[in-house]
Design brief:
Largest interface: A-B, 23 and 19 residues
Number of helices of chain A: 7
Order of helices and strands of chain B: HHHHHHHHHHHHHH
Order of helices and strands of chain A: EEEHEEEHHHEHEHEEH
Oligomer: heterodimer
CATH class of the domain at 89-249 in chain B: Mainly Alpha
Number of strands of chain A: 10
Helix content of chain B: over 70%
Number of strands of chain B: 0
Strand content of chain B: under 5%
Number of helices of chain B: 14
Helix content of chain A: 25-40%
Strand order of the largest sheet of chain A: 6-7-8-3-9-10
Radius of gyration of chain A: 18 Å
Largest sheet of chain B: none
CATH topology of the domain at 89-249 in chain B: MetI-like fold
Structural class of chain B: mainly alpha
Shape of chain A: globular
CATH superfamily of the domain at 89-249 in chain B: MetI-like
Distance between the termini of chain A: 41 Å
């Protein structure tokens, strides 16, 4: 099981008068087969936290350790935009991030995850030939195809229309259930967070971790279900208490 | 008020077909151009002949130019060489092409190295920047005269001219290519722990390809011009020298004919080498042919504009609608 430990994490951008504090003394522990959502208003540092955890950015101070059975955990990432290489086919985009591209087992694995996101017949297409939803599916398949211990997702459905986003959320939930991964999911959509997560971590502007809420409801969670709606209202009330609602 | 479908104009794209489709086709436009040039040529010579009669002797008509070109083409294959004092067309072009390709390859290799350095390092950029701009500002004629003075006749001068005229375009394009590579793709590669050499090969190089192609085209065409000018002033053979030969002989049809060989060569190179190569490298692009895309976009914009005006409603319309439905 993957263990994520974030201790006294601090991140600043710029110097002098232009200095912006993105994260302030963040402490967080995530362990096991959980789906954790990080929510908060724009500019609260949630994407910065994800980028530091996935080693895209370095912290100003503090420590992040992500381990799996006492070794460094393997990471996968799904971005807000799919970030596919437009000059490589769908299948080659998955191969690009693999350690050993010639291994037949790796190729079979890539095909399996493309099948899971229902793009098994689009392997030879270029990203420009796919819709936005399909491209994001490729991004999800790519992240799962490296068989990561931890999967980071940064608002992966925010660019998609509501129906496609809902379908992909359902597919993501099924993949999370089937693969037993640890998923850290950044979103500004409280409803999405409640629908998918075991835990919701709330950030405020200035990068402060304000609350850590456990959502103990059975899956799948229908947004129309009373208990799900109540949970969403409760999280939104927390937002109001913390004065995080955009005006 | 009732909104019915007959108030919405049909899309413009549905109306244009038949003759308009042929007239707007790229093939027609491509065929029309040489016809227009020849017509303009005849008309131009006619007008100048009317207002400036003694210019006629030096203004060749198309058939005279084609005749001069044909003589050049068949020259080595007919008995009694017509031009014993100079190389024939094929040897001339072989000499010039050798110089062009040698200079072009050196300009590409050196320019790519310097351009990469300038794109990746601010210090390297600061070191080379002003010198690249200075070389870029120097006219090809300046290089031609200077190189001819220093190196005299031979291959070295013309090759150097190709390098010096072509290399700034390679450097500038490669540098811009490096600067324009999408950072988010590098972040993606880093997030997945992809090794640096694989990232270079599959992210940096393909992202730079449009700039690299621009560099190739510029270096080749500008280098070609630099070469010809240098051969005019400091050559004893080659295409530029032959052009000068016709100029000295006061044979305008030879000058135009020989220049036409350059144009034909450049067009063939573009059509059969660069264009095909480019199509292969950029086959991932969803739709080739930018002009067509823009034209279609205009059509769509026109259509949606019409649709928008048809569906534009005022407050009074809404009140009417409510009255009718109550």
């Amino acid at each position: 099981m993957a263990d994520i430990k974030v201790e006294h994490l601090h991140k600043e951008f710029g110097l002098g008068d232009d200095k912006v504090v993105a994260l302030e003394d963040v402490n967080l522990e995530i362990s096991g087969h959980v789906f954790v959502s990080i929510v908060g208003p724009s500019g609260c540092g949630k994407s910065t936290l994800l980028n530091i955890m996935s080693q895209i950015e370095t912290p100003t101070s503090g420590v992040v350790s992500i381990t799996q059975d006492n070794r460094e955990a393997l990471r996968g990432y799904v971005f807000q935009a799919a970030r596919l290489l437009p000059w490589r086919t769908v299948f080659d985009n998955l191969l690009f991030v693999q350690e050993d591209q010639s291994d037949e087992a790796v190729r079979e694995r890539c095909q399996r995850y493309l099948d899971m996101v229902q793009l098994g017949d689009k392997t030879e297409k270029f990203p420009g030939e796919l819709s936005g939803g399909m491209q994001q599916r490729v991004g999800i398949a790519r992240a799962f195809s490296v068989e990561p211990d931890v999967l980071f997702m940064d608002e992966p459905f925010s660019h998609l229309d509501a129906i496609t986003a809902r379908t992909l959320r359902a597919e993501l939930h099924e993949m999370w259930k089937a693969t037993g991964k640890t998923i850290v999911f950044v979103t500004h959509d409280v409803g999405e967070a409640v629908e998918l997560s075991n835990r919701i971590v709330v950030f405020s502007k200035g990068g402060k971790l304000e609350d850590d809420i456990t959502i103990d409801l059975p899956f799948p969670r229908d947004p129309a279900n009373e208990k799900v709606a109540i949970a969403k209202a409760a999280v939104l009330r927390k937002f109001e208490e913390l004065d995080l609602v955009a005006t | 008020m009732t909104v019915t479908s007959d108030k919405i104009p049909a899309p413009r794209t549905q109306q244009s077909g038949g003759i308009m489709k042929v007239l707007k086709s790229p093939t027609f436009a491509r065929l029309l151009f040489p016809v227009a040039v020849i017509a303009f040529w005849y008309a131009g010579v006619g007008v100048i002949k009317a207002i400036w009669p003694f210019a006629v002797d030096v203004l060749p008509l198309p058939q005279e130019v084609v005749g001069a070109m044909w003589n050049e083409i068949i020259d080595p294959f007919v008995d009694g060489n017509q031009a014993p004092t100079r190389d024939n067309l094929y040897i001339t072009f072989a000499i010039s092409l050798f110089r062009l390709i040698s200079g072009f390859l050196i300009a590409m290799v050196l320019g790519t190295i310097i351009g990469l350095g300038m794109g990746l390092s601010k210090a390297v950029d600061a070191f080379f920047h002003d010198w690249v701009m200075a070389i870029l500002a120097m006219p090809a004629l300046g290089w031609a005269l200077f190189i001819s003075l220093v190196f005299g006749f031979g291959n070295l001068g013309p090759i150097l001219a190709v390098i010096l005229t072509g290399i700034p375009f390679v450097i500038v394009n490669v540098r811009e290519g490096v600067r324009n590579t999408p950072r988010e793709l590098f972040d993606m590669a880093r997030a997945f722990g992809v090794k640096r050499n694989r990232t270079t090969r599959h992210v940096l190089v393909p992202a730079m390809m449009p700039f690299f192609f621009a560099a190739i085209r510029y270096a080749f065409s500008i280098g070609w011009k630099g070469l010809v000018i240098t051969e005019v002033f400091g050559g004893q053979d080659g295409a530029g020298w032959t052009l000068k030969f016709y100029y000295d002989a006061h044979r305008a049809h030879g000058v135009v004919g020989y220049a036409a060989f350059f144009i034909i060569f450049a067009l063939l190179l573009e059509r059969f080498v660069f264009e095909r190569w480019s199509q292969r490298v950029f086959k991932w692009r969803p739709q080739a042919g930018g002009v067509e895309t823009v034209e279609q976009a205009f059509d769509v914009a026109g259509t949606s504009g019409a649709m928008a005006s048809a569906t534009f409603v005022t407050g009074a319309d809404v009140e009417d609608f409510e009255d009718e439905n109550n």
